[in-house]
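Exercise 7. Given the encoded structure of a 195-residue chain, write a plausible sequence.
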């Protein structure tokens, strides 16, 4: 009986140690996965040099700067200019395989630019559409190229702490999603350079 109790105690101690080791190993594996995932996110990408979207980039950046200045009227007029520039993009200059994806991106970008242009008295609404627009413009640039280095900036406080991104011509943080309320919120998460 004594031998059985000793063996039972040893088994329980051994099982507890194994369970703790399994838990520790699981934590280490999760940490390795998180580190691996983090390293898989690019911090810079290179795109081809292209003048195809110069006017689109110019108007997007003018819109961004109007929002940085809390100027909803100027943002509305910049949104209209961006809408017009997006409408002038020549899809036939791209390969057939790229045209459908580009059409979807351009349609989404035009819709957001139009919302911004039509809401000159609602800066918060403009900022919501601007945040979405940044992804469209980045996707467009990745496919077509650009004529300058751009920076993608991320602010974790936007949209009830869900976060928001935008493109900038400078790595200096000037936040268009909050303007003067939180002008320095953000950090560069991606640098887009030109070959």
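Solution.
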């Amino acid at each position: 009986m004594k031998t059985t109790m000793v063996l039972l105690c040893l088994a329980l101690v051994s099982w507890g140690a194994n369970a703790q080791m399994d838990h520790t190993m699981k934590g280490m594996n999760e940490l390795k996965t998180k580190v691996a995932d983090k390293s898989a996110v690019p911090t810079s990408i290179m795109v081809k040099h292209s003048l195809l979207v110069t006017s689109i980039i110019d108007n997007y950046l003018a819109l961004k700067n109007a929002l940085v200045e809390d100027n909803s009227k100027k943002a509305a007029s910049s949104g209209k200019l961006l809408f017009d520039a997006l409408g002038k993009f020549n899809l036939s200059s791209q390969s057939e395989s790229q045209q459908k994806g580009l059409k979807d991106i351009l349609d989404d970008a035009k819709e957001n630019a139009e919302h911004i242009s039509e809401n000159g008295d609602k800066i918060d609404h403009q900022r919501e559409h601007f945040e979405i627009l940044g992804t469209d413009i980045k996707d467009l640039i990745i496919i077509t190229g650009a004529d300058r280095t751009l920076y993608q900036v991320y602010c974790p406080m936007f949209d009830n702490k869900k976060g928001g991104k935008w493109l900038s011509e400078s790595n200096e943080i000037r936040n268009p999603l909050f303007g003067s309320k939180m002008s320095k919120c953000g950090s560069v998460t991606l640098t887009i350079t030109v070959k």
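Remark. Residues 2-40 form the longest helix (39 residues). Students should compare their own answers with the one above.
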